Amino acid sequence: MDFKDSDAEATYRAAARAWLDANIAEHDAGHYPDDMAKAKAWQARKAAGGYACITWPQEWGGGGGTPIESVIFGQEEAKHAVDGSYFTIGLGMCVPTVMAYADDATKHRFVSPAVRGDEIWSQLFSEPAGGSDVAAIRTRAVRDGDDWVINGQKVWTSGAHYSDYGIVLVRTNPDVPKHQGLTMFWLDLKAPGIEIRPIHQMSGGSSFNEVWFEDVRISDAQRLGPVDGGWKVALFTLMNERLAIGTSGGVGPEDILAFAAQANGADGPLLKDAAFRQTLADWWVQSEGLRNTRMRTITALSKGQVPGPESSIGKIVAANQLQAIGNTAVEAGDQYGIIADPALTPLKGAFHAATMWAPGLRIAGGTDEILKNIIAERVLGLPGEIRVDKDQAFRDLPVGA
Amino acid sequence: MNFDYSDDQKFLKDEARKFLGAHCGSDRVRAVLDDPAKAYDATLWKAVAAQGWLGAAIPEEFGGLGLGHIELCAIAEELGRACAPIPFASTVYFVAEALMLYGSDTQKVRWLPRIAAGDVIGAFATSEGAGPVTARSVRTTVSGGTLTGEKIPVTDGDVADLIVVLARDGLYLVEQGAGVTTEVLETLDPTRSAARLTFTDAPCERLGTDDGIAAMQAVFDRAAVLLAFEQLGGADCCLDMAKGYALDRYAFGRQIGGYQAIKHKLADMYVKNELARSNAYYGAWALNAGAAELPLAAATARVAASDAYWFASKENIQTHGGMGFTWESDCHLHYRRSRQLALVAGSPAAWRERLVGQLEMRNAA
Fold first, then answer.
1. Contact check, Cβ <8 Å, B270/A68
2. Contact A289 B275 (CB under 8 A)
3. Which of A309, A351, A395, A397 might form a disulfide with A329, Cβ 3.0–4.6 angstroms?
């Protein structure tokens, strides 16, 4: 048991490090949401160096490398202040779906520009009536000659406001059970009839959108997979979602440890409070547990194996811990904790921001409850939920207000 | 990156599971549980010794197999899964480790080969009453080569041949015999016995330095990692039991494992067990590599494993419903063992405190 690179891995890491040192200073990427031009320039630089989409074939602009090489480059890149979040959903979920299901002409047109960061992609699945129950979506596509006409509404579409293209899951047949009447398409988000409205989140920011479709006309050539066969395509896309949604970022045990050494409790620093110390230890155990779990995942990749299901615990643990740490620091201020002004609050408002952002993280990309169902069913082999909608035509299903 | 058991270690672990499956079924655990006169399973003890497990981490020059601590962790995980009713932890994780850390060559040559052979049972005597062991709580003294004091509870103290005793000025070796009286205690986990040991001018021999508390803590750090693997094995066994019952048991016309209340409970168990496994692996690495990170890694592994085993053992009973509350169900074997293992090297609360203390020291450095 050790943390050493193999000889090949060490060679790759040294090369990646040297390349980063040589390239990163003049091409530092900006941070969302401020600096897309810098982020695109850095992505293009990586693509030219073979460090964008490292596991993808070189003929599509990728690096032709292995999963462990991708991990190693990610570790080295993370030591620098760069942010690839503009491209995470497109390159993590959408473009792989295009690569798996589109014809060659479409792939030639779109894959390499996406790898270079020239074009950004969004994923349009969730709807007001289809969140955890994604297959319950109502946005309709109706065939009209060689075209399809789309009407309806998507929601929680991350980055739609700065994206160029998207993959969209729509209902093409409401007369069959819900999973059997869905079809996947790619589309141009600038097409006539598409309106993108940012969602004002409870945290104050707007990283998600509503996307409205009014008589949006697209070609049948934009179809990904068979008509009414879109659910299988969607599962392919979603397979990568939990890996694409980062668990890092925000405040952690180290941050609240540093804060608690300074913050005043009733009898001196918060860090001297026995109850606080007990809780801090539990957070540390969770964070270390996740870090060491990632080491197990990387070990599997290093051996050329498929990682085990242990990586499925990450988001549940991280999101709940973020909420707890944020709120503990807020409450530590006693009456002062009410203040959210970053100029007046610890760590420039990071604990307050975490408190307000964490509810979203516990929901995005699979709620706590859905993730526990997934662990129970797919990892532990327990029975699935009772499905009252399984054998009914979609149009006959009861709906709420 | 190789943060996993090696293939050889996995083979050893599989063999250990098969061996314990054949020689340590719950009937064997219950034979000790149900017989107050039986402190441990002597037949299993001899069989385990014959497998070489007692000396897995003891160097060959002292009669062990000299494999290393990762191998010992793999064995510990299976012993924990099986709830093995033998004085393995006391003898191997505490006494053998103390001898390897602090013993003179003479002491190592004298004791380690006999431990590896299963001829000597050890006990580690530190507590003198309720609450954590501190410099102030220790009253046991040594003068003129003899030791006087009272230790309670001493796990396996009633069957130990060799006792490592914490006195005010260091650790001492005391042999069972003259000057030692033993009173067996009633414990939460009767499959692991414990005693009150009263020492009256008992002949003793110094083990290591005169900072007894530091020496005890160093032994605890090593034992904590090994105990974490026993706890992890037990916690995984509880999850398997709960899963099996949730699939077999029908209520309201379907398997209870189909209800989210049960599914989410078992998912919570899985999350805790995986966090505990990952932290235990890190502890194993630190122990085996002799890394400076050991105190923090050991505390992290122990807190995670104690939490996981407690949660899994209590929610396993809950999943079994009324059946889980019966003596004949095996659920309480793990519930009892989870209490024994969580306290035997100091409580979870004490280890959380130690963990934060380590973080403070690290940040001050």
1. no
2. yes
3. A351
Residue B77 tokens, joined: 């995980």
Picking from A222, A219, A276, A229, the residue whose alpha carbon sits closest to that of residue A253 is A276
Q: How much is the pLDDT for A240? A: 66
**Cβ atoms of residues A276 and A264 within 8 Å:** no
Domains contained in chain B, CATH given: 7-117 (1.10.540.10), 122-210 (2.40.110.10), 214-364 (1.20.140.10)
Give the gap in angstroms from C-alpha A203 to the nearest C-alpha of chain B. Answer: 28
Q: Is the ipTM of this complex over 0.85?
A: yes
Chain B residue whose CA is closest to A374: B267
Contact across the interface for B1 and A298, Cβ inside 8 Å: yes
For residues A400 and A395, give the distance between their C-alpha atoms in angstroms, rounded to a whole number.
Answer: 13
CATH of A246-363, one of 3.10.100.10, 3.40.640.10, 1.20.140.10, 1.20.1250.20: 1.20.140.10
pLDDT, tens digit, 9 for 90 and up, residues B141-188? 999 999 999 999 999 999 999 999 999 999 999 999 999 999 999 999
| Distance between B288 CA and the closest CA of chain A, angstroms | 9
Better-predicted residue by pLDDT, A78 or A212? A212
pTM of the model: 0.94
**So what's the architecture of A121-242 in CATH?**
Beta Barrel (2.40)
